[in-house]
Write a structure and sequence with these properties.
This protein is mainly alpha-helical and 83 residues long. Helix content is 58%, strand content 10%. The protein has a two-stranded antiparallel sheet. Strand 1 and strand 2 form a beta hairpin. The longest helix is centred in the N-terminal third of the chain and has 24 residues.
Length: 83
């Protein structure tokens, strides 16, 4: 994934917020792709298949969605509380 260093005007740490936004959108996109593929990449364990280990598979997919949504929310609303 390419790290983009864009600046948001009048925002402390503007490049950080944009990077977190794009990384969060990327994590959500990975979650959607993994649902369509039927397998998810588990860190340090390789691929987890939906038919072999449904609990582990859905846990990994949920982790991608939750982390992505958290990063998107923090990047959009985190600068409201920084001043």
């Amino acid at each position: 994934m390419v790290i983009l260093l864009w600046k948001i005007p009048d925002c402390p740490g503007g490049g950080l917020y944009m990077n977190m936004l794009f990384f969060g959108i990327g994590l959500i996109a990975f979650g959607v792709v993994y649902i369509c593929m039927g397998k998810a990449y588990a860190r340090f364990h390789g691929w987890v298949y939906r038919s072999d280990d449904p609990k582990g598979y859905w846990g990994e997919v949920a982790l991608y969605f939750v982390l992505g949504a958290g990063l998107v929310a923090y990047s959009l609303f985190g600068n409201l509380f920084s001043r």
